[in-house]
Amino acid sequence: xxxxxxxxxxxxxxxxxxxxxxxxxxxxxxxxxxxxxxxxxxxxxxxxxxxxxxxxxxxxxxxxxxxxxxxxxxxxxxxxxxxxxxxxxxxxxxxxxxxxxxxxxxxxxxxxxxxxxxxxxxxxxxxxxxxxxxxxxxxxxxxxxxxxxxxxxxxxxxxxxxxxxxxxxxxxxxxxxxxxxxxxxxxxxxxxxxxxxxxxxxxxxxxxxxxxxxxxxxxxxxxxxxxxxxxxxxxxxxxxxxxxxxxxxxxxxxxxxxxxxxxxxxxxxxxxxxxxxxxxxxxxxxxxxxxxxxxxxxxxxxxxxxxxxxxxxxxxxxxxxxxxxxxxxxxxxxxxxxxxxxxxxxxxxxxxxxxxxxxxxxxxxxxxxxxxxxxxxxxxxxxxxxxxxxxxxxxxxxxxxxxxxxxxxxxxxxxxxxxxxxxxxxxxxxxxxxxxxxxxxxxxxxxxxxxxxxxxxxxxxxxxxxxxxxxxxxxxxxxxxxxxxxxxxxxxxxx
Length: 495
Fold this sequence. Notes:
Protein-Tyrosine Phosphatase, Chain A
């Protein structure tokens, strides 16, 4: 008897169909045309709804995703609130990402709009739903602790009225867990950020433009949340749908009205099933700009907006767009085209982004230039002034190991410039340290120099973190964010 062939089980056939469908979705998600057109559609929401509604507030895109949704001429600074700091069981207040520079706009204008996006069917990214609320709660506690007679000691009862989380997004259980952690986060912030309370109060006094006197006033940073599909007549304190009458200060139950400053958390992508939605001519991708390294072919947000007229053309194919990027953008990009930018960290130490070799200002005695360096550049430069370290490229794994060796040479070299034979600072002598981003390697080298040469006592992890937070607060042009490998190299050198 011949062998009987078993027919294909229906479920097997369905599984295969589902796999093919999922594969199609994944391919469409990586389609650069669909991604860029989706970004433009989300920007339309910001332009049509957010800007008119919050016309008194400045737009501040959140790195790295948010910058894709804001033309560069629409903002003069960015912020960096990481979603991972708001993930379940983490709930962190980052001392490396203080974001204190946006407080100037908050206290001057009464609020600010922070733009970000998310994918995979969520309404609000964790950066907006939890990281920023935690940030606001910690600062609220620090600002108001002394005013309310609690000193440096903050309890969960005190913190409770300053923690605001989006209704229907964060569960009551998670809220209680976050609340329980706030006192510890406040304590650590006071520990690792020197004079943080004084610094915050001075920012309020300097930039607050309202008629009220600030003595003994309760200051509240209040996050609210808005996204496509949300209603604008929602009470930001309760989540209830009510006629808009402004902020109900009585929700704080303090006996007097606090001064409320709004932190508008705007998630600009449309929520859709499976993260995609068919549109005329392309597939809409929710949170299209997220993880752009995986789909952009080297295109950066600033390049996108410079060439937005081309990218907005529906007639362009995916292949044509990829060719355009390679031919007109990434193919012409070089370190020599970058403008030299730098910022003062101390009276003698500056960090920045590497530019042309011939662009060194005359007032610097030494330039530590990390990243790519051509032999021609070396030949045309003064070896006494410019020292090249081509093996130290930002955000490369090998650079971490290379930095450990390089610091042994760089730090003594810099110290010879900064100090005289007696060990006293030569204030007229300044040093510039640059890399290809201004945020990683150059920041790590500057941190090693400052921690070794300017620490009042023994160098340990606490003093290193304190120096790093001071550097972050000093720097306004760059979001200083040394990689883990860079910080490990610095710690290894110093300890």
